[in-house]
Design goal:
This protein is α+β, with helices and mostly antiparallel strands. 36% of the residues lie in helices and 24% in strands. The strands form three sheets. A six-stranded antiparallel β-barrel has the order 1-3-4-7-6-5.
Amino acid sequence: MSLPLPRILATTGLTLSVVLIWAGLAGADRTLTVQEAILRAKPAVALIVAEVVAEVRLNCGSGEIQHTPPPFRETGTGWFIDARGFIITNGHVVQPAHTPPRWMVNSFAKRAIESACVPAILKRMGIAPGEQPAAEDRVKRQALDSVLPSTKVKLDPGIFVVLSNGTRVRAEVKKYSPPLSLGDDPEGKMSGRDLALLKIPGKDFPILPLADSKAAKIGDPIHILGFPGVVLSHELLNQSVTVEASVTNGAVSGFKQDKANQPVIQTDAPAAWGNSGGPVVTAKGEVVGVLTFVSLAPGPEGGIVMGFNFVIPSNAVQDFLQGTEVKPSAGSPFNKVWWAGLSEEFDGNYKAAERYFSEANKLVPNLPDVKRMLAEAQDKIKNPPPRPFPWAWVTLGVTLASLGSYGAIWGRKWWKNRHRISPSAVVHLLEEGKSPLVLDVRKPSAFEASPLKIPGALYISPEAIDAGKYDLEVEPNRTVVAYCT
């Protein structure tokens, strides 16, 4: 028996709602919040420091001396691509320490002469610093002309990684591609891709997975993580700014090509000096690219033009890693427990979150985000927040109760009609020559008033059946059909 169309639709809708509710309760296709996506990514982001220390030997006129000027230091951003200590950053971030330019030698020599020779000469002349600017400038020029040719400079370059727990580690450059404007790659590969692969000792580091940059679309939300210099040097902030990455938000705003016809992604997310090399992550916390260069206003004093920044696609990073021992898809023990803890925390399972966060803190101790989330989970265990009304479970219960009522009605109807036979089935029996015995058991009033009389049917009133006045003899295999209204 078929149900009317409206009832079929209602039943289907109820069933579909149960499926959707159950899928939601089971966590199927769980969507990350912005906060969770960023927290997944932040521990894997590190400050990169390119530092060059110089030992300068010079003779100011009274014998050779050794002088150490202030070191040259530039900062950028990097992120872990492999839990065994492999880090991706920009080539131009590490370039001053990886291939120190000639001007750096001259700069150290001049600074050493100005800080070691000029004050001594002025003192012999009885002139205090700043007292006679013209005389001081003349002494400076003369000292540079006479001392600079014999000055010897020994550079000690180094690249350091500062983790978000404050640990500073010297890094080794495993692969390098210079920025586009600096000419050919010494290795002859990936020239101008502005990428560098670093390696530090250790294991189980947090990592960032790579997204497929070909799947990126204009308008996709993205987040840039890094250490902008304006934050690192801010006079009102303490030293914690050197370990916790800042986050800026925006979207994919275009797809361009650089001067070497290599693809770059344009974004309107704000960036500044120091963000270079930082990961650009999607709403899933995956890296869609690496920030490489910003846009500058024209003129000698042109500043950064916000909202027009460019990103090396993640697929280019994948190509850059070819031939190295890096395994981007190998996973990380830290990520496994950190991500699980975040999932439990945002689902309100604070005891489970505390266990995962504690394990993450053991793998890589004292990461600020891990410590903060661990403390938050412990506080919520002691002082649990009020639970929201369980609308999903109530809806599921009501839906199941409704389905149960429909099922009971359908079951009773089926049980009542389980022995019914359709008129077409009776005709089919007649056509096959099986001649069923047809009993007309309508009430006498209905039988007499109705013009319908079934040919060959035997009429028996219901009262006679109840009184047991009929004793029919029927062959064992013959079908008996009772007709009533």
